[in-house]
# Entry
Amino acid sequence: MIAVAIDGPAGAGKSTLARRLAKHKGFIYVDTGALYRAVGLKMLRNNVSCDNLKAVEELLASTELDIRFVEGEQVVMLDNENVNGLIRTPEVSMMASDCSALPIVRAFLLDMQRNLAKRNSVVMDGRDIGTVVLPDAKVKIFLTASPLARAKRRCNELLEKGMTVELTEVLKDIEQRDYNDSHRDIAPLKQAEDAALVDTTELDLDGSFELLLKTVDALAEEK
Ligand code: DC
# Structure
């Protein structure tokens, strides 16, 4: 099995590029952020806050989370409900970021992620894939872009889905999430020592994919 670990901040194009890379290589694409989002959704639905660790623990104990692949696409099943269409709102994004700082939440999701990589060749994207989840991954990428470039992309994505949002609001959200994700005590967002940096600030999607593919192939050959 081969694992490509792709980490980086929100909105750097990880999921789009990782999905495309997985298709190109014939690997499974695993979006680990969706798992944190599903946990965040359940917490919002049940009015459980991150401050109440006991309630979070109880909630997790009664949570069944599963990933399925339908025609190559990842489907997140939360208590037997397909929640793919419900986990991309700004509210869930913020809750996912908040709850991902809790060790019990990270521990809850760790084995699931490792098992997926044991059974399949994967392109897995997240924040701590190269550092914690798959430290032995053959290829590690840290994919990033400037906060403004990422905010502009996210605005366009949301616009395409019919949601109107202010760039300044999105930028604020991105900066807040960057801060949260990289300052938490456990498994913070950071570049693994042996990860290659891919910066897509100045590149469009095709240019970013070309650079990513070139970098991945070079790393795979090296090892
Ligand atoms: O990639 P994303 O934006 O969908 O992830 C949502 C949140 O989940 C993100 O703010 C941080 C958290 N996350 C994490 O802590 N570790 C991962 N491997 C993936 C996501």
